[in-house]
Design goal:
The complex is a heterodimer. By secondary structure, chain A is of the alpha+beta class. Chain A has 15 helices and nine strands. The chains are: A alpha+beta, B alpha/beta. The complex binds nicotinamide-adenine-dinucleotide and zinc ion (ZN).
């Protein structure tokens, strides 16, 4: 993780003719930095007053639409949602995911726009024109330590609202609605969601974006520099590794039910990680942020025993995430008709190979 | 790795508990992200190696394979200049002489490092030397043609076999022969003999490798004029009927459908519809 730098460029910003273009511009600045957002993660919004074709003026939240990536987003990638409706939704006691998705879609001013981010209601609740949200690596690293919350407070003082982990979506919006009045004040410039990511707010696009950079930089400074091995190590000692790899790929593909591409990383950085003595304890807990899980699975495979990995995944599925007893019977995913995803690993750590 | 190690250096990495992670993994709104990707293309997750990928039939094969979702390893003596070789993550290009066995083994190793294995081999690179009657044929020219059109392909098949035998859906080899095999012409002794030997090699491979679930087919093109093989003076007299390389490659891909050991030889000439019907016949 390196030093954070604002990529704001006056000339590029001046070329933006509307607030929405500016919103797309600073979103792309965030998206360019892989240590801030990965794989379509993160989202941004701007609240604008819009006059409709019949002359009605309305407050609209333009929030990142699903299917768009911050790195390449354009004005068309923002979904125009009616603020008034979002705020009413936030006052409901409960709402299913399907209901929420339908409500969000049905209350846009452009039926052709992409479906709004599942965090749309949360964006609507935050009383700032510009809102930026990322899953910054270093912030997640700080929150996911044994004394994570104390650390975050030590780094940010009371300039940020801090929300314990809640599943994204409506429940998270409700949690923020509850905590905001207790924690927010005139000096609030952002929010940390434990185990998830960070928000920054601003009255201008630049302010919100540069606050994100500054907040992440503070976390970087707290974490301090960390030496990482670099450079290629090349092919491992095992001379028959292409066949070992091809066997591994076949086993993974068989379990996945379809052929899979497997790429091999034998650079110094990856090998040093795969050879850590505490590899099991470190790697077998879970992904850095929960939305990585659909790409990475909960844990990487250690070694090459694909059948054992698949069996463990099946057990994890059958117990709905290693739940027991009442917790299992009462959980939201207890429905018997839930269909298991393929049980093949997406990441493997093989100390003598890659 | 960065996140875990940073947290570890600060006193320990603590991920969310499994139940919370499970709820996100099986959250309908996350699953919708996966569903949006839709049905994967037919060759998704599979890896093909095409020799002679820079030009003509080989280049068209690369395009056809990519369009169907395969990852492609392209090999050619000439530089692989198309942008895809540097920008498309599904492409891995190597400038390499197929007669250099050690270099080709290295290409196979790098292909495995990049994609994990090899499912399809398209033995397409070949040379068609200037016409020479037998009474004026130099040993040098004869040997050169044999080295490229036969020897190199045998070595590559041999070295690729362990990978093809580990293909999740069964390995596939498509050998590009020539109409010269069943219908040779004067002045093309080295070429015709080399392609005949290559065809016989493929037949033996089909016999030997069937039990390894590797399917071997030979395609005999004829008159695919818009390739590097045909120089202007050969082209002009016979331009009346021709098959585009793109048509050729869609034919070879159609062999993919089900695993079976087909009779490896089918003589393909001129029109794509006749090509297809002759393939249908050979599959029966
Ligand atoms: N075009 C036709 O009508 C026709 C007819 C019958 C057979 N064929 C066969 O089809 C195949 C492809 O031919 P094409 O028409 O596309 O020709 P082409 O010349 O356009 O393509 C052949 C490619 O193979 C490459 N190559 C040649 N020797 C190589 C070597 N030693 N190592 C690596 N790469 C090498 C060349 O650089 C070239 O890019 C050949 O085997 C040819 O004999 C073509
Ligand atoms: Zn988020």
């Amino acid at each position: 993780m390196g030093a954070m730098q604002s990529l704001w460029n006056d000339a590029e910003a001046a070329a933006c003719r509307t607030d929405l273009e500016l919103r797309a511009y600073t979103s792309r600045l965030l998206g360019q930095d892989r240590s801030l957002v990965l794989h379509g993660g993160g989202n941004t919004s701007v609240k604008l007053s819009v006059t409709s074709i019949v002359g009605d003026e309305e407050d609209i939240l333009f929030v990142k639409g699903s299917g768009w990536d911050l790195e390449t987003i354009q004005p068309a990638g923002f979904s125009p949602c009616r603020m008034a409706h979002l705020l009413k939704l936030s006052r409901l006691d409960s709402m299913s995911d399907a209901q929420m998705a339908a409500e969000l879609k049905n209350n846009m001013t452009n039926a052709g726009a992409p479906a709004p981010s599942v965090e749309a209601i949360l964006h609507a609740l935050l009383p700032f024109k510009w809102v930026d949200h990322t899953h910054a690596d270093v912030v997640v690293a700080l929150t996911n330590t044994p004394d994570g919350e104390a650390r975050i407070r030590a780094v940010y003082g009371n300039s940020l609202v801090i929300i314990p982990y809640v599943m994204p979506g409506f429940e998270l919006a409700k949690a923020v609605a509850g905590a905001w009045p207790k924690q927010a004040h005139a000096g609030t410039i952002g929010m940390v969601l434990m185990g998830h990511g960070i928000f920054s707010f601003g009255n201008t696009a630049r302010e919100s974006y540069e606050r994100m950079i500054a907040l992440v930089e503070l976390a970087e400074r707290h974490a301090g520099p960390r030496a990482t091995p670099t450079g290629p190590v090349g092919v491992s000692a095992a001379g028959d590794w292409p066949q070992i790899m091809a066997d591994l790929r076949k086993a993974i593909s068989d379990v996945a039910g379809a052929p899979m591409i497997v790429s091999y990383h034998a650079d110094a950085r990856s090998l040093a990680f795969a050879r850590r003595r505490d590899l099991e304890a470190l790697s077998q807990q879970g992904p850095a942020t929960p939305d990585h899980i659909i790409r990475t699975k909960r844990v990487p495979m250690l070694g090459r025993d694909v059948a054992a990995y698949a069996a463990a995944y099946e057990r994890y599925f059958d117990t709905r995430g290693l739940r027991e007893g009442a917790a299992l019977a009462g959980c939201r995913a207890a429905t018997p008709d839930l269909v298991m995803l393929d049980p093949a690993p997406r990441v493997a750590l093989i100390p003598n190979l890659a | 790795m960065d996140i875990l190690e940073t947290a570890d250096a600060l006193g320990g990495w603590v991920a969310l508990p499994a139940p919370q992670l499970f709820d996100v993994e099986y959250w309908d709104l996350e699953q919708a992200k996966l569903r949006r990707a839709g049905q994967p293309p037919v060759l998704a997750g599979e890896v093909a190696l095409v020799t002679g990928a820079a030009s003509g039939i080989g280049k068209a094969c690369v395009e056809a394979l990519l369009k169907r979702g395969a990852a492609v390893v392209g090999v050619d003596l000439q530089p692989l200049v198309d942008g895809r070789w540097s920008s498309d993550p599904a492409c891995f290009g190597a400038q390499c002489d197929i007669t250099d066995e050690a270099a080709m083994r290295d290409v196979l190793a790098r292909a495995v490092a990049r994609f994990g294995g090899l499912d399809m081999l398209v033995l397409n690179a070949g040379i068609f030397p200037k016409s020479a009657r037998i009474d004026a044929l130099s040993t040098e020219l004869w040997q050169k043609v044999m080295r490229v059109n036969v020897d190199a392909n045998m070595a590559l098949m041999r070295d690729a076999h362990p990978l093809l035998a580990r293909s999740p859906k069964g390995g596939r080899v498509v050998v590009i022969g020539s109409k010269n095999v069943p219908a040779p012409g004067p002045g093309a002794a080295a070429y015709s003999a080399s392609k005949a030997a290559l065809t016989q090699l493929a037949r033996i491979a089909a016999l030997e490798w069937g039990s390894d679930r590797i399917r071997v087919n030979v395609i005999h093109p004829n008159a695919v004029f818009d390739t590097g093989l045909w120089t202007e003076d050969v082209l002009t007299p016979c331009q009346s009927h021709w098959v585009k390389p793109a048509a050729m490659s869609s034919i070879s891909i159609s062999f993919r459908k089900t695993w079976r050991r087909t009779k490896p030889v089918s003589w393909v000439r001129r029109s794509p519809s006749r090509v297809r019907s002759s393939i249908r016949k050979s599959r029966r």
